[in-house]
Amino acid sequence: MSGSANAATQFNQQKPGASPTRTTISGAWAWCVRLLYERTVLVLTILFAVTMVGALWYLSRISVGLVHSAALQGTSLYADALKEVRKLYTSEVVDRLVGKVPVTHNYLAQEGAIPLPITFSMELSKRVSKEATGMQARLYSDLPFPSRKDGGPRDDFEREALSQLRQFPDRPFYRFEDFEGQQLLRYAVADRMEAGCVSCHNNHPDSPKTDWKVGDVRGVIEIIRPLDSIIAQTHLGLRDTFTMLAVIGIVGLSSLALVIARLRRSSSEAHERASALEREIVARQTTETELRRAKDAAETANVAKSQFLNNMGHELRTPLNAVIGYMELIRDNIYGEIPEKIRDVLQRVEENGRRLLNLINEVLDIAKMEDGRLTLSLGDYSMGEVAQTAVTGFESAAAEKRLALKLTVAPDLPRGYGDQRRLTQVAANLVSNAIKFTEIGEVQVDVQASNGAFLVSVTDTGAGIAAADQEGIFKAFGQVDTSKTRKGGAGLGLAMAKRIVELHSGRIWVESNPGKGSTFRFTVPIRIERPSGIA
Q1: What are the tens digits of pLDDT across the range 171-209?
Q2: DSSP H or E stretch at residue 148
């Protein structure tokens, strides 16, 4: 919320060259925006109150229209019904009994007489008004019979009704009036001469007019209807509607207030999280900068290490090869006969020198592997010869430990395409490790080909490897036995073997259970098309 308020404050700042009116409008708008964000519930409450007042005013106006509409509709139906009853009475009663029984307005004073149609209509209206509706009916004319003392117009409305209905007999004439604090509807319709009435009116001795024609307006039928009951019902319905709207509005406003409060809390929490995230981003950027510097330093150190290893490897291998060469010359009696005791010592020196030379070569290969400079020399080769070379090189070591060293090569193996020297290095490393970590039993080497790939397996009857240690043995300097009585080696052979196999687009893994021996397997395509990882 504070960010929006700040935006409104910035919006309020006067721009160079802005007119005072525009500045005033901008300031007012910014104030409104700030008020909305800072006093949201108050603003919504005011808007709700204004809306409810407007709704009340609008409903009041609607109620007046509804009252008038309902009154006009009901009164019109009542007037139509009164005229229809009068017609029915005239045609079905008076016309049949005329000449047989007296038909007069003073029917109560004559035995066997029936009322005139107009008298019947007025009596019917009086009874209906007393029973339910409260409406009154009045029939008047500017040419009344002498017997009707109040048959003429009595006020301005009645005189205006007679005038209007003679000009427009098909249109009702009505007016809403207040009479003694009571609202009334005065509704007048033309009382037109019917065919059955013309003869009677023209021949009656008291008729004020004797030339009536069908359709002439002989008078007015006026319905006076009080509106109190309709107003009360309408106001009751509108009050219920207003109450329901108010309840809905209050519930909606309360819900909105809760939502706004929740949104403010969420906004505050989001702001705090954003601040924390910003701090974390800054910390990560700082960490990334430090890591980048550390990486650059490590790369520099790695380059220096590689140069150092290359130089030291050259410096170490040259004299070491010379030492091994002189040991061979001495053992071959080039410099004369030597005692057997000295010959045994020289042989141990030569063996340890070769072991040291192999270790130096492994360290240099690992350095090349880490730098991405380990490459393959591709050519045709025989996987059977690769396995045979590895087995032959360690027959004496197996014989010293009285282990059976067996080789099984599937017949008709296809020629492979890869680096025979490096693959021999892998197989030799697996055979060497198997012999080194097996005290009793045998070492079995198996070579097969299927699905376009060679599968080489080296199985021993040694102590086995726990599942938790199987992944780490393929990492540089990774060893299972780290005690002082371990079998020797720097832990580089399997890491180098894994890299060589991967350069051939192959895979190497181990299957082992403690106490049940181990089986190391690697598979490589028979012919590699694009060696992976070659720098």
Answers
A1: 999 988 887 677 888 899 998 888 777 777 777 777 788
A2: none
Conformational region of residue 528, where left means phi above 0, alpha means psi within -120 to 50, and beta covers everything else = beta
For range 208-219, the mean pLDDT: 84
pTM of the entire predicted model: 0.41
pLDDT at position 483 over 50: no
Cα separation of 36 and 121, whole Å?
A: 68
Q: What would the two tokens of residue 439 be?
A: 């005290």
CA dihedral 39, 40, 42, 44 (to 10 degrees): 160
Q: Are 238 and 62 in contact (CB under 8 A)?
A: yes
* Spatial contact of 532 and 418, defined as CB atoms under 8 Å apart: no
In three-state secondary structure terms, 227 is: coil
Confidence category of residue 37, pLDDT binned at 50, 70, 90: low
Q: Is the pLDDT of residue 288 over 80?
A: yes
Q: What is the mean pLDDT of residues 300-325?
A: 73
Tell me the sheet residues that pair with 217: 192
CA distance 328 to 26: 101
Residue 153: phi and psi, rounded to 5, are -65, 140
Nearest CA-CA partner of 224 in 154, 144, 120: 154
CA distance 157 to 173: 9
Candidates 156, 110, 161, 164; CA nearest to 139 is 161
Model confidence at 75, pLDDT cuts 50, 70, 90, reads confident
Q: Which residues pair with 219 in a beta bridge?
A: 191
Of 95, 183, 173, nearest to 140 by C-alpha is: 173
Q: What φ, ψ does residue 402 adopt, rounded to 5°?
A: 60, 45
Contact at 8 Å (CB) between 209 and 49?
no
Between strands 442-450 and 507-512, the pairing is: unpaired
Pairing of strands 217-226, 404-409: unpaired
Task: Say if residue 104's pLDDT is above 60.
Answer: yes
Round the average pLDDT of the chain to a whole number and report it.
80
Is 509:431 a contact under the CB 8 Å cutoff? no
For the chain, what is the radius of gyration of the CA atoms?
A: 60
Residue type, 317: R
Please report which confidence band the pLDDT of residue 363 belongs to, taking 50, 70 and 90 as the band edges: low
Block residue for tokens 């009505």: 174
Does pLDDT of 73 surpass 80? yes
E strands within 164-299? 173-179, 182-192, 217-226
Residue 525 dihedral angles phi and psi, to the nearest 5°: -60, 145
